[in-house]
Amino acid sequence: MTRFTPEELEAARDRLVPDVVADGLHVLFCGINPGLMTAATGHHFARPGNRFWPVLHLSGFTPRLLKPSEQRELLSYGFGITNVVARATARADELSAEEYREGGRQLALKVARWRPRWLAVVGITAYRAAFDDRKAGVGPQERTIGDTRVWVLPNPSGLNAHWTARTMAEEFARLRVAAEEG
């Protein structure tokens, strides 16, 4: 992996990272917002220590462990990636409540356009803020966006220590089974 200086990472602040999407995906994974490493590389969930790619593999979504640079391969499995908020920050707590709400509105428009079967938001706090649903928990939600069902997954950030890779993979696998069933 490329090593970036602190100055190079800071220069990535506010950059936008293109979504990995196509029409009719099985699952559209949705991060909170790009971190600086993601913005610097242009690859989603690129920060070392982020467990998204290992958990995706452990849960059976991918047949092998993908690197962030292989993110477009997800499309061949029927999966994609977007974010609640598009702009890159060092930490999610740099985002305002209004950015989350606007991100939720924009995300709903994206979902209506691409029509994935499932929207999987990785991060309960982001989901609650984006959709003004303070009581939401991890798992399937009652909310739908058109015909798209919604599932909230734990945040794979290494900072989310109360979820292990194993327990996260179990939750991701629950979504995988639901997505395979229809």
From TrEMBL:
Keywords: DNA damage, DNA repair, Glycosidase, Hydrolase. It comes from Streptomyces cellulosae. It comes from the Bacteria. Its EC number is 3.2.2.28. One of its GO terms (molecular function) is hydrolase activity, acting on glycosyl bonds. This is G/U mismatch-specific DNA glycosylase. The lineage of its organism: Bacteria, Bacillati, Actinomycetota, Actinomycetes, Kitasatosporales. Residues 18-179 form the Uracil-DNA glycosylase-like domain.
